[in-house]
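Lab notebook, bench 4. The sequencing result for the construct came back, and we need a structural model before the next group meeting so we can plan mutations. Quick request posted to the team channel:

Model the 3D structure of this chain.
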Amino acid sequence: MNWPRIIRSVAAVELLSTGRIRAGTQVRLNRIMYGHETIEELEVETFERPRRLHLVRENRGMHYERALKR
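Done. Here's the predicted structure in token form:
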């Protein structure tokens, strides 16, 4: 999967789960946002290649979602 093509701010991705990417897969994204490097751990909630990727994260009571559709 070409992560930088899907999410432009992504510089690198590390899969934290084994096997193919699917719902429940854990990923660590290294991103450049507003000139600053960030590292986030997210979970794939939905993956329908090549049309849909939905990432979620819970952090200190805050819910984060990133959905990409084609």
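The first helix runs from residue 3 to 6.
Will bring this to the meeting.
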